[in-house]
Design goal:
Number of strands: 15
Bound molecules: glutamic acid
Shape: elongated
Distance between the termini: 38 Å
Mean pLDDT: 86
Largest sheet: 8 strands, mixed
CATH class of the largest domain: Alpha Beta
Strand content: 15-25%
Number of domains: 2
CATH topology of the largest domain: Carbamate kinase
Strand order of the largest sheet: 3-4-2-1-5-9-10-8
CATH architecture of the largest domain: 3-Layer(aba) Sandwich
Helix content: 25-40%
Length: about 400
């Protein structure tokens, strides 16, 4: 399908009726993430053949008019090889140094490969902290959008020199979900070395799960499988990342990056890998709310009683002082906090109108009584519904 003539975005993808057959019709902007394991050979060295194949596939999609954002790990592996080290180092500064050396090597290789297809790339190095900051977040979005408009392929990695989040935990899984949310991607493809998620019996993989509609704590626990010594992301971090992308309205496919022509086949709607498209949490959040929900780190929690929990999640009400039971953390007016129910589960997240001390003084009080405690400087709501996103029903 050639999208170059067609600039309208189709939102039917975000309906509950989303099916693989729709993929060729409605997908236009895709974030493709390749973890380190997809890019290296058995000895952990960057595998030029595998990398060339992937770049060829990406260039082909680009040529068909898709907007592709490529989130690539592999900097550490490339750096270790360039430095002539026998193994992946253990200490963080050594890993960071390897990434600094390897990122250049990797991007040079990508750039040379893409030039064969007359494509150009732009390097985007991000950290979670960048995306948590409203201004830097918007700058990153503007830059990537400008690249897409100019038919430049953004190649994203964590800025490992200043951050170690993905080296430690995810091998860029969460970064990929954040990137997908940042650019409002229609689809996030997480390429790994497994054919997707599998149902297991007694530790044995029995059958591939083609579609997963809900990611629960249980599903994440089931997804064992720690990363090899060459990368850090197991299935659990992929599921967490998929959950995050789903909640922002982006479906996810986990698939095997070593399968032949995998990207094009997925985009033709072929039943490969595991499509994760949670229906219960599907709602497209507005940009501000998306930022509240996913890019900001909560500074504390407000625990609410059952009635308030229901009013917030089922009826879309604001959080009033009367529903607050207790608080924790260190936060000021304007901070992002979790709203937790009586079981401690996070049901929503929002920007608080009060600092923690003031909430402690007015918790459980009827709104009419609040001015007697706080005087004139009071708000009716502890968290207004406009500044809140619901995370669980
Ligand atoms: N950003 C790192 C890289 O590009 C993450 C991958 C890893 O931990 O192996 O190498």
């Amino acid at each position: 399908m050639d999208f170059s003539q067609n600039n309208t975005r189709d939102n039917s993808l975000h309906d509950d009726s989303f099916r693989r057959s729709l993929i060729p019709e409605v997908i236009r902007r895709i974030v493709i993430k390749a973890g380190s394991r997809v890019l290296v050979d058995d000895l952990g060295r960057p595998d030029p053949e595998q990398i060339s194949s992937l770049i060829g596939q990406i260039a082909a999609l680009h040529g068909k008019g898709y907007e592709v954002i490529f989130v690539s790990s592999g900097a550490i592996a490339a750096g270790v090889q360039a430095l002539g080290w026998p193994n992946r180092p253990v200490s963080l500064p050594d890993l960071q140094m390897a990434a600094a050396v390897g990122q250049g090597v990797l991007l040079n290789f990508y750039s040379d490969q893409l030039a064969r297809y007359k494509c150009r790339l732009g390097q985007v190095l991000l950290t979670h902290a960048d995306l948590n900051d409203r201004v830097r977040h918007l700058n990153a979005r503007n830059t990537i959008m400008a690249m897409l408009r100019n038919r430049v392929i953004p190649v994203v990695n964590e800025n490992d020199v200043v951050a170690v989040d993905e080296i430690r935990f995810g091998d860029n899984d969460l970064l990929a979900a954040m990137a997908a949310t940042l650019v409002d991607a229609d689809l996030l493809i997480l390429l790994t070395t497994s054919d997707g998620l599998f149902r297991t019996e007694g530790g044995r993989l029995v059958e591939r799960i083609p579609v997963l509609e809900d990611i629960t704590d249980e599903t994440i626990e089931m997804a064992q499988g720690k990363g090899s010594s060459w990368s850090s992301g197991g299935m659990a971090s992929k599921l967490q990342s998929a959950d995050r992308a789903n909640k922002a309205g982006t479906p996810v496919i986990i698939a095997n990056g070593h399968q032949e022509n995998i990207l094009d086949r997925l985009l033709q709607g072929e039943d490969l890998g595991t499509l994760i498209n949670s229906t219960s949490t599907q709602h497209k959040l507005k940009a501000r709310k998306k930022w509240i929900a996913f890019f900001h780190r909560p500074q504390g929690s407000i625990y609410v009683d059952e009635g308030a929990g229901r009013a917030i999640t089922k009826k879309g009400h604001s959080l009033l002082p009367v529903g607050v039971q207790r608080t924790d953390g260190k936060f000021r007016a304007g901070s992002l906090v979790n709203i937790r129910n009586t079981e401690g589960k996070t049901i929503a997240r929002g920007l608080t109108s009060y600092d923690r001390d003031d909430i402690e003084r007015i918790k459980g009080k009827r709104s009419a009584d609040v001015p007697f405690v706080l005087g004139d400087r009071h708000h009716v709501e502890v968290i207004h519904r406009d500044n809140m996103v619901i995370l669980a029903k």
